[in-house]
Design goal:
Elements (H helix, E strand, L loop, with lengths): L1 H10 L3 H28 L1 H4 L5 E6 L7 E2 L2 H6 L4 E9 L13 E4 L1 H7 L3 E2 L2 H9 L3 E5 H7 L6 E6 L4 E13 L9 E4 H11 L6 E2 L1 E6 L5 H11 L7 E5 H9 L3 H32 L1 H9 L4 H38 L10 H28 L2 H5 L4
Parallel strand pairs: 4-9, 6-8
Antiparallel strand pairs: 1-11, 1-12, 2-10, 3-4, 3-11, 5-8, 6-9, 7-8
Helix pairs in contact: 1-13, 2-11, 2-13, 2-14, 11-13, 11-14, 13-14
Length: 385
């Protein structure tokens, strides 16, 4: 208890300097935590991926479609208990700034496959009956102020024209990680229109989401699907939903790497600031360390005092920064909710915050400790008075 009291007293001997250093560490830890949360946001789709769902797409590229006729063949494969066709629609609402993911889906099977979404029974029945009906996640509806019954027009990019939908259902996520930014509508509505305007694009889908009976069957079912369509005009690539989502994230690898690099640079800079503070403190107290040596204090005990003071300052800033990460993330969620389905501070991020704080405290104390241990008693005593 006495040693802890001594550490705090020495750490805050120069209060302004100490608090400015703590403020710097706080800002650095806050920035580090928010950047890590952004990275987690990119991977939220991977974390919520179901082990009972696999995704079948064209082996060449996701931009190439698959025939609708594949659906019945996939249904006959052992281990498959559900399948839903899906196509990326890519429509624009108002302008490009108002982007959100929108898909044409087979609604009944889609609802059965995605148990992480909660649908109000009455709205679901209405949605399933209305070919022009659409559904939107709660976050998306709140973003634009949509209500059930509203008419929504999307400007087609992949499928040209103005497409009108009636919002029939607003769904919720079962937990905070569920994606509530999606907009989806009946694939039949899109296909019927294509039969009138572009017959060559009709009866084709972007991908199939396949439900398997058990998660441990996913690899075998995926291999069998690809074997079934080997040497066909449209060969398939089937992978787990987790791997499919990872392939989507790989398109943003450079951005994620930059974010991680920036977070590390922030910690390195603040470590240098803390090291400068500890160096100044040690230089001013070399006389005190010389006196301690005359009293029998060894290098280890003197080093522990310096390391302790450095950790007190670094961890004080770390605790404040970690605490502020939660309200800051909540504020950021208001602006980034359209980009990330979930923007939640994870336990891993807090652990990394404290690891970074400990690292800063230890690194900042290395050089001052080395100087204090090496100072000769006579040289240190000359500084007194």
């Amino acid at each position: 208890m006495f040693l802890l009291k001594l550490l705090f007293k020495n750490a805050f001997r120069h209060r302004l300097r100490s608090w400015l250093t703590i403020l710097s560490v706080t800002i650095a830890i806050l920035a580090f935590g928010l950047l890590q949360t952004v990275v987690d946001g990119f991977y939220s789709g991977v974390k919520r991926a179901s082990v009972n769902r696999i995704v079948t797409r064209n082996a060449i590229s996701m931009t190439f479609p698959l025939p609708l006729a594949y659906e019945e063949k996939i249904k006959q494969i052992a281990g498959v208990n559900e399948i839903s066709a899906m196509s990326w629609f890519g429509g624009i609402y108002i302008d490009e700034k108002h982007f959100f993911p929108n898909f044409a889906v087979e609604p009944a099977s889609f609802v059965r496959l995605y148990s992480e979404y909660v649908f109000e029974p009455g709205e679901l029945r209405t949605f399933l009956r209305d070919r022009k009906g659409a559904a939107a996640g709660r976050k998306l509806a709140e973003r634009f102020g949509w209500k059930v019954g509203d008419l929504i027009t999307l400007k087609g990019t992949i499928y040209p024209g103005n497409w009108e939908f009636v919002l029939r259902m607003i769904y919720d996520g079962r937990d905070e990680s569920a994606d509530e930014r999606l907009f989806f509508f009946h694939w039949d509505y899109l296909n019927e229109a294509l039969k009138q305007t572009s017959k060559g694009r009709a009866d084709q889908v972007g991908l199939y989401v396949v439900g398997v009976e058990r998660g441990d069957m996913a690899a075998d079912v995926a291999a069998e699907i690809d074997r079934t369509f080997r040497n066909s005009m449209a060969e398939t690539l089937t992978e787990t939903e987790k791997n499919f989502n990872l392939s989507m994230i790989s398109m943003a690898d450079s951005l994620i790497m930059i974010i991680r690099l920036v977070s590390l640079v922030v910690i390195v800079i603040i470590a240098a600031v803390a090291a400068n503070t500890m160096s100044m403190t040690t230089r001013e107290r070399l006389g005190e360390f010389a006196v301690l040596k005359t009293l029998g204090f060894g290098g280890g005990r003197i080093g522990s005092l310096i390391f302790g003071e450095s950790l007190v300052i670094a961890l004080s800033g770390c605790i404040i920064g970690a605490f502020l990460t939660y309200p800051a993330a909540h504020l950021f969620r208001q602006f980034l909710g359209a980009i990330f389905p979930a923007f939640v501070v994870s336990h891993k991020t807090i652990y990394l915050d404290f690891a970074a704080g400990l690292g800063v405290g230890c690194v900042a104390a290395i050089v001052p400790t080395w100087r204090a241990i090496r100072v000769r008693i006579a040289d240190g005593l000359r500084r007194i008075g």
